[in-house]
Amino acid sequence: MLYILLLLFAVFAISFAILWVHHQRLNKQLVIDLAQKEKDLAKQTYLLELKNTELKQYNYLANHDFQEPLNTISCFVGLLREDYETNFDDSAKQSLTFIEEACDRMKNLMSDLNHYKVLGNQQKMEYVDTTQIVNDVLSKLSDDIKKYNAYIHCDTLPKIKAVPDEIRLLFEHLLSNALKFTDSQTEPRIHITSEMVINAYDEKLYQFSVTDNGFGISTQHQEKIFSIFQQLHPRGQYSGRGTGLAEAKKIVESHSGKMGLASEKGKGSTFYFTIPIPEMEKSPKNFNTKITENRYSTNV
């Protein structure tokens, strides 16, 4: 009996020793892995700081150094016109006009770029009634709605936590595009909706959609249109400089959402975006998006 107890004790001691050695090895490997991760993180932080420094330098150049030569060119072109225009033939006058237009365009592009840069930097969010936001935008666009004889139907939209001015700008870009990019023989028909969706991470979101009956966008151009200064039509054919959808996408992403579209050439488009639902509002009773008879049309 004593022999058996000693044997069991020996087995237990050996097993404990093996487990202890294994535990020490795991701890050592964990310390090594942690040190490597800290090293990698420090490297990534350093690289990010370098990128931030480069970005600050670029912003300074865009705001100051790039503007100065443009202003100088514009000033000298103005002096040439003032002092020597009577000596210029039509070709020279046209050349001066091209220079002035190029300078103005460059200034506008840099202004747009600076505006794009600051979007999403505002951190003060509040509860926003998106139905009221859309009403405000439609009121602002009332002249265009009458011009195009448009019909716009808006569901009752939810309240979200967001930066009000940015959400207003987001809807303004989407609605003005829906009005603008429609065949001249077609009266715009626009429908604004919302619904609750659940993403791959089991997070509840509000998904907003703006559907139109416009030109539609072919598949190969659907990524391009969200890049800044990208336009699918010749410059000057439509107002704007190709910043609207880029700004819209950046606003959505700064609110931790995503933006996309479903479209087919000649069959209209649906632009959609998601906004996370605040924790206190995730009860199912808040997901009603019943349709109302809000109409915005020159015929009503």
TrEMBL record:
Signal peptide: none annotated. GO terms for molecular function: phosphorelay sensor kinase activity. It is an enzyme of class 2 (transferase). InterPro entries: HATPase_C_sf (IPR036890), HATPase_dom (IPR003594), His_kinase_dom (IPR005467), HisK_dim/P_dom (IPR003661), HisK_dim/P_sf (IPR036097), Sensor_kinase/Photoreceptor (IPR052162), Sig_transdc_His_kin-like_C (IPR004358). Residues 61-279 form the Histidine kinase domain. SMART domains: HATPase_c (SM00387), HisKA (SM00388). This is histidine kinase.
